[in-house]
Structures are given as C-alpha cells and as structure tokens.
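Example record

The entry below shows one chain as it appears in the dataset: sequence first, then structure tokens.
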Amino acid sequence: MHSVQSTGYGIKPFNVVYEDFIQDYEGTVIRVLDFLGIQADNVKIHPPAFDKLADDTTKQWVQMCRQESQKGWDNVR
C-alpha cells in the first residue's frame, strides 16, 4: 500500500510501508519503478538479500539488558 501527497513544494513522495514491502517485495519494487516513470517490462528483480540480524547471542544480550534495567521492579517480564 502506498499514498502520494504533495508536499507543497512540487515534491510528491512515495510512501512504502515496511510490512507491505517485506510481504510483497517484487510488487513494491514494480510500484516504485512505476511511480518514478521507469518501465519495468524487462526489469529482472532479484530476491532481496536480507541478512539475519538476530541470533541466540542477540537474544542473550536482550535478556541481560532487561534483567539489568528491571532490577528492583515488582513486575518483571
């Protein structure tokens, strides 16, 4: 989903919702190209190359930070 609203300076932004982008990567890229006036007929859209940012070490750090920041709290998650 996207929306276009004029900024008052002649600029019309194209908004991309992250969740929509992740759910429909290729469709979003095609809509962006269309918005920019670029024909996507012969454009090959490669799958996204996302790196995993969270792993077990990340989870351990999050838990450690929570424990540290919640010391003395009655309701601790």
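Notes for this example: The mean pLDDT is 84. Helices lie at 18-23, 25-35, 56-69.
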